[in-house]
Amino acid sequence: MTMHFREGGCLCGAVRFRVSGTPQYSVICHCATCRKASGAPSVAWLTFARSQFEFLSGEPRIYRSSQGVIRRFCGTCGSGISYETAKYPHSIDLTTMTLDDPQSFPPTGEVWLEHRVSWEAVNPSLEQFAHGSVDEP
Questions:
Q1: In total, how many domains does the chain have?
Q2: In which domain, by residue range, is 94 found?
């Protein structure tokens, strides 16, 4: 079996990472903290097992955005790289758009739709979740 690797990084290239295999989830998040952290109406995320992820170069900065949550970002250009929560210690969420080829893993769902800004359209071809994640009611 051949393992497929994908690489990504921040806008300025200071932080680089690699993932292997396929993500557990590929979603678009509409929550208020993702919006504030990114300055965008929503953020596309890929969830990988931590064992599938490694930083290749650079040392991202850490911001504790809420209880038990850290977000990693490039200290030079500000690109958001990851979201990590103590609730799921064996996984890591990566911003889809930081992959060199973000087309590799299109989203399959939208989460936190109860927080969506009214002027952003919902994609009816994706699974819809009013709350936090695809594994929560």
A1: 1
A2: 5-128
